[in-house]
Write a structure and sequence with these properties.
7-stranded parallel beta sheet; alpha/beta; Rossmann fold
Amino acid sequence: MDLIKQFFISLGTAVVVYYGVKLLLFSRMLFPKQWFPMSKTFFTSMGEWAVVTGASEGIGRAYAFALAEQGMSVVIMSRTKETLDQVAKEIGDKTGQRVKVAVADFTKEDVFGEIEGQLQDLNVGVLVNNVGMLPSYFPGRFLESAELDQTITKVINCNVKTMAKMCKIFLPGMANRGKGVIVNISSGIACIPFPMYTLYAASKVFVERFSQGLQAEYKDKGIIIQTVAPFGVSTRMAAYQQTNIVTSSPEDFVKSSLQYLRAGDKTHGSVCHTVMGWLLQSIPLQVIYAESVLSSLQDYIKKKTGYEASIPESSPTFKIQLNEQEE
């Protein structure tokens, strides 16, 4: 009996310690300036230039503005030159910083040689890999995707290959200088195997694992490599949902996420999104995978985006392709 009693006392102590540590870690998220301080010259000390992919709107645009406001010159990349030129003018007018435009469609196969040639002489201290492709606003089963073969290739090129290639281009310079920051944008839904967004969620798992492995390899070189995994942010990818306590504006989210840059190899970027991540992981997968839940998810997204439920999912108009997370 004494042995059993001792076992349960030890088990109870372990549980208390475990959740005590979790509570302490969460409490740090409430006071990022105290727990993860950064000097005013932190970003400029990393290098002269920041490179942001998918930077012509949404989260990418907000990162480009925020880094320019920190005193960095910025390279903004996307596939639409007219939009990039407008954003470059806005950043330059507001911050006085230099802005370079680099046009690239990251769903294509061979774009990185040209990028490397254009930017090889820049002292790049910060890289934000933000560009990403969501096959459809609307949740659906894998085989329901329009032009599935092309979709698979585009998602892998944009969400997986681009991040690895951009790191290959700019990581050597950071390693040689012994400093640098790489921020790779994942997604909150990558917390679990997420049906109805299977291909997209799986591609974002790669972002997280690649980033965490890379941070372990290069942390001793003085380089910060972090995954940021947001939930609701009011961007085109989220059908510009109204901002609230759960859904942030891109500007507010980026301002918050940068405060946690020294918080570890993965963050959800804000207190609210951190809570959402914990809640999602605490729900039994059997509940999430229930057919009634999946159907409710489809109905909810259609309602939130104003989509006509009368259009059959098999219709070619049902799937709306988004080639970039931030166009």
